[in-house]
Amino acid sequence: xxxxxxxxxxxxxxxxxxxxxxxxxxxxxxxxxxxxxxxxxxxxxxxxxxxxxxxxxxxxxxxxxxxxxxxxxxxxxxxxxxxxxxxxxxxxxxxxxxxxxxxxxxxxxxxxxxxxxxxxxxxxxxxxxxxxxxxxxxxxxxxxxxxxxxxxxxxxxxxxxxxxxxxxxxxxxxxxxxxxxxxxxxxxxxxxxxxxxxxxxxxxxxxxxxxxxxxxxxxxxxxxxxxxxxxxxxxxxxxxxxxxxxxxxxxxxxxxxxxxxxxxxxxxxxxxxxxxxxxxxxxxxxxxxxxxxxxxxxxxxxxxxxxxxxxxxxxxxxxxxxxxxxxxxxxxxxxxxxxxxxxxxxxxxxxxxxxxxxx
Length: 359
Hints:
By secondary structure, this protein is α/β, with parallel strands linked by helices. 30% of the residues lie in helices and 28% in strands. It has a 5-stranded mixed barrel. Strand 16 and strand 17 (330-335) form a beta hairpin. The longest helix has 17 residues, at 118-134.
């Protein structure tokens, strides 16, 4: 049976001050009138019934998920005592699903990405799930780039594996890190590289075997934890699992070294909506290329994003290439070239008792 595992543990710090510790990016309405988590659930519901959707998130986020997502229940949640990156989050979901259904096929999505059109994505997921149910393989979804992008990782396509309906699946030749602009341009024009979307398809059995093969200590810990699922020892065993396991992404931990990794070439719109500048790719602009959200007024202002979710109005006069955000008791003004450094600003705020309350 097919299941969808939604990883919802990110902090989304680059969307501060709208994103805070108690309401991270996946709970924001950035690209529509629904939160990004709600959008992710709605995206797969035509294929995956709600009872087969699992959301992996921190224990502290569970009440917010229950409050903000319609028809969700505790059965849909798999909670982490604290974050340990995607390898353990996926491994945790896999052992639970494998215990419930030894033939479970996992579609793994992030809770804070923009993906469209829905119909094309669902066909890709269905084709991938068909392969994963029959083959011992790990499938990544590689998105055809529409620009040279330095903020994403890339997948180099290898030999053709097979065609499944309208989907074309390749062996993965290599994973590459976020490149410099010149290299990103080479990747884009070569047509041999795809963006690494962080969307995956595999059976629970296949990913657990891969984790055990590539990360033996983590695999052993997951096996020990699996024996406690459904018993009164489970909560304590989960704490031990998270305290003793390394924090590492599934890409580094498994995909870069496993031999059975495939990629589906996906001609879809995908964006990880990683910072404030991403909004200008999807929101309407005025005649001066400004993105204006909420109560705002600008004059002689160009190429600027202004976001106001508070009372009152935000006005800009004679500025350009800025991001201006007003949220509750915080105002952020940043040059577009510096919005990637917001994390550094948050570190500075955290070092002062008077300013740490604004995180």
